[in-house]
Each structure stands twice: as structure tokens, then as C-alpha cells.
């Protein structure tokens, strides 16, 4: 056991509703992003992009994408629910959106490029939590929305949103959640 394996066995996500909005210094954002970019990537294709959402971009995306797109999909949406949707990105001061941007390749399957985008998400979660922040990887409905994908700079013909990692503060340590039973998920083959 060392500091890193100890941390990895204990880390836990804090859900967005339980986060508190705190300022995340530029230095920490930079550290998290450098960890994010350092993931396995077959062929070094960089098949992903990271869009850091902060400041006025949060209400702007709420007004131009979250609210109208939710309203269009839900004729009967109440004003309260529209306000909730519009304010989603105001729940923390910084959100990192990870786009899977696969590149055509004769040998490397798109699946592997998508896995690399998932690794970026997990490195963001791990790096942020290791710095003491609350962090959660969510997709929610707007990861599957083309207007959101385009607003984040993605190509709606080829790219997908792998997730949004909200980064904030926590007021208490999160409770442990149910974890898999080792015998259900581990399989050792040695002969
Ligand atoms: C691809 C992906 C998408 C997820 N989307 C959501 C979501 O939309 N809403 C949610 O509450 N949790 C979502 N989760 C789960 C959260 O990240 C959750 O907090 C996590 O499972 C907690 O696990 P941890 O404590 O081991 O980090 C998602 C997880 C993954 C991997």
C-alpha cells in the first residue's frame, strides 16, 4: 500500500446536489487538466477534447441551450423545472466537459478512442478528488443533446459527450456507497 493506492481505494464522488460552490484556483484547474491529458491513447490520436465551462458561459449555456432544449422536449414543463434546467451549470464554479472526438483510422477501432475519452473523465475525477475537491462525473440528459455538443465545439456528425465533471467543495465526507462483491466481478485465470 502506498499513498496513491490508499487514496484510490478510498476515494468517493460527492453528488452535485451536495456540492458547495467554491472558487477553484487557476493553478488547480491547470493541474487537473494536465492529469486529464495524460491518459493512454492508442496511436496517440488525441481522440477527445476538454471544454472547461466557467464564469458567464454557465448562465449563457443555461439560457441558450439547457432551458430551450428542455422546453422543446417537454411541452408540459413547469416554470420551476425550466429554471432548474437553466441553472444546472450554476451548481459549481467550474465544469469540465469531455468530448469523444474519434478520428478515422485504418487499424484503431472507434471503441478504443471512446475508452480513452472515458479515461480522461476518470483522470479529471481522480485528480480533482485528490486535491480535496468534490467531483462527480455525470451525463444527465444534455450529454445526449446535439445543440449542447455543438455549443461545446463538437461535431454532431462524429463526436459525443463522454460526460461533465462538476468540481466543487464539500462540507462533509461522502458516505460510502454499495461496491461490487469481489466474487461477482473478479475472475482469476492462472492455468
Ligand atoms: C458515464 C457515467 C455517467 C454518469 N452519469 C450520471 C448521471 O447523469 N447522474 C448521476 O447521478 N450519476 C451519474 N454517474 C455516476 C456518478 O459518477 C456517481 O457519483 C458515481 O457512480 C459514484 O461513484 P464513486 O463514488 O465510485 O466515484 C455516471 C457515471 C458514469 C461513469
Characterise this structure.
With 191 residues, the protein is α+β, with helices and mostly antiparallel strands. It has one domain (3-185): NADH Oxidase. The protein is 40% helix and 15% strand. The chain contains seven helices and four strands; from the N terminus they run ααβααβαβαβα. Helix 2 (26-37) runs antiparallel to helix 5 (110-130). The radius of gyration is 18 Å and the shape is globular. Flavin mononucleotide binds at residues 12-13, 15, 136-140, 163, 177.
Notable features of this structure?
single chain, 191 residues, alpha+beta, NADH Oxidase, 4-stranded antiparallel β-sheet, 7 helices, 4 strands, 15% strand, globular, binds flavin mononucleotide
Largest sheet, spatial ordering of strands: 1-2-4-3
Helicity level: 25-40%
List the total number of helices. 7
Order of helices and strands: HHEHHEHEHEH
Q: What is the CATH domain class?
A: Alpha Beta
Sheet having the most strands: 4 strands, antiparallel
Please state the CA-atom Rg, rounded to the nearest Å: 18 Å
Alpha-beta classification: alpha+beta
The count of domains is: 1
Strand content: 5-15%
CATH superfamily: NADH Oxidase
> What is the CA-CA span between the terminal residues?
27 Å
Low-confidence stretches: none
The whole-number mean of residue pLDDT values reads 97
* Small molecules held by this entry: flavin mononucleotide
Shape: globular
Give the CATH topology: NADH Oxidase
Q: Tally the beta strands.
A: 4
**What is the architecture at the second tier of CATH?**
3-Layer(aba) Sandwich
